DNA sequence: CATGTAATGTGAGTTTTTCTCAACGGTGGT
DNA sequence: ACCACCGTTGAGAAAAACTCACATTACATG
């Protein structure tokens, strides 16, 4: 295909000037000085080796060739503008689908969804529970929220939201009967955890200075759940002491349905927002900012 | 109107890459490196804040949004290309209308028209006689050929072709009877000139060192014609001695129908090509070059 | 399974284009 | 006659685009 296209920006300037009948007006529309537009038009005239405007003192009048060019070009530009506006609408109007572990969704995100919709109305967030590994590479998902440990996957963008803090929690009844006893009496209770995070108890115990062997013994009579969600239900029901991320049980702590008298410790994992490729970066960053704010101010 | 147009050169790169399904192929078509195209596409993706291609190892595949954009954009670009090609055809196909004083046309240009059409076939020259002042500002004229003296008009482009040289000429019979007599015996003959160039005789006589007063006396019995054309016919008919631009009577000198034994002198006028605004500069310069060559080699 | 080939992506630096600023020149209204 | 407005232009500054060289990835082949 021959390079029969003239300089496009010159064409843009010409189109505006021809439509508005004035270099100055075109310059305003294009947010440049009138000198710039004048030059672009000159360049186009040089390209076609003909004059496109008659300089008629006050303003401009199209020549025969200018009229012909403008007729075709304005149509094409209208089409171009329409296509781009349509695409923008499409992109901006698309819902932002966020995958999120079920427990985090139910216990942390859903209670905040209303506020999110109010504060980020343009995002049109669509939250859904992800079972197992979050994978925003799935076509129908814009991003995933998850606790993950470094190294970050390299094939998608990872935005850190907050460090993960975990701690032992229990129903108030259990905690009460432990308050007068030594710290490691904790191990006399049934220890609950999830199959997906076997390192949680050791990490926490180690950070708290508890004896590893005692923990190993204690876990033998403990119970493991498939999902964090069941684990928490078990803890709420008073079945034992659970280990869980602070964020997920935040609401239960505030309502008093769970207590965590033994404190929390950071892990090497982070709460991260994983952006699928092709996801509008702006939306992702908006959401990340909102999440970060939500975590730090109302944690 | 909102500036809803993306960077057009990025759009051009995208259109080519989408159409050809390859960054490298697009780069070849646009005569740039693949890096340049890659960057332009990135810029466009940044503009829309979405990805337009899936990078699928070997080549590229349009995403949903990319497909949508390309559908609209390729159509617009096709229209743009068509408009510009049409305009180019229009401009290049337009005949080049050259106005020319009748005598110059008849005695100098017309004998050379055949060669001109052969050597500059793309010009499609259309020569016509201009009465009175040549004015390429008239809409239907591309350029004018004329002897004019400085200063040049400022509202059109002036290309100098050659200096004007004028001289006294006469039919061979008249010249013969003067050869044995002194130079200023010339003034005994009937002096012929044109109403449009009353200064021609004095200029020539002065440059030749002839007596001004004698000239004034001689002209009182001379005759003035409205056009150079009639003047030359009179000289050919042996009515007297005419003063004329060398170029116009060149053919008559060579054929021996006129002689100019007294030589020629330069005036301050020039043979110029006056280009109307809007006339393709390339055509004008082509013609000017040809004219200059024709004047100097076959004068 | 290493290796080669062909494709895209990217950092740094350079070239080219484009823009702005400030001045000039012409036109029309008051 | 003056003023306000508009387009043009030269010089220098700013921005965009490009090139080069290399990295990276996927597919094909020996």
Describe the protein.
Two copies of one chain form a homodimer. Chain A has 299 residues and is an alpha/beta fold. The first copy, chain A, has two domains: 8-92, Orthogonal Bundle (Arc Repressor Mutant, subunit A), CATH 1.10.10; 95-299, D-Maltodextrin-Binding Protein, domain 2, CATH 3.40.190.290. Helices cover 49% and strands 21% of the residues of chain A. The longest helix of chain A is centred in the N-terminal third of the chain and has 30 residues, at 64-93. The model of chain A has no long low-confidence stretch (mean pLDDT 88). Chains A and B meet through helix 1, helix 4 and helix 11 of A and helix 1, helix 4 and helix 11 of B. Chain A binds a DNA duplex (30 and 30 nucleotides) through residues 7, 9, 22-24, 32-40, 42, 55-60.
Radius of gyration of chain A: 31 Å
Biggest sheet, spatial arrangement of strands of chain A: 4-3-5-10-6-9-7-8
Find the CATH topology of the largest domain in chain A: D-Maltodextrin-Binding Protein, domain 2
**Poorly predicted sequence stretches spanning 5 or more consecutive residues of chain A:** none
Structural class, from secondary structure content of chain A? alpha/beta
Count the DSSP helices of chain A.
11
CATH class of the largest domain in chain A: Alpha Beta
Question: What helical percentage do the residues of chain A reach?
Answer: 40-55%
What distance lies between the first and last C-alpha atoms of chain A, to the nearest angstrom? 61 Å
GO biological process, one term (chains A, B): DNA-templated transcription
Domain HTH lysR-type (chains A, B): 6-63
GO molecular function, one term (chains A, B): DNA-binding transcription factor activity
InterPro entries (chains A, B): LysR-type_TF_proteobact-type (IPR058163), LysR_HTH_N (IPR000847), LysR_subst-bd (IPR005119), WH-like_DNA-bd_sf (IPR036388), WH_DNA-bd_sf (IPR036390)
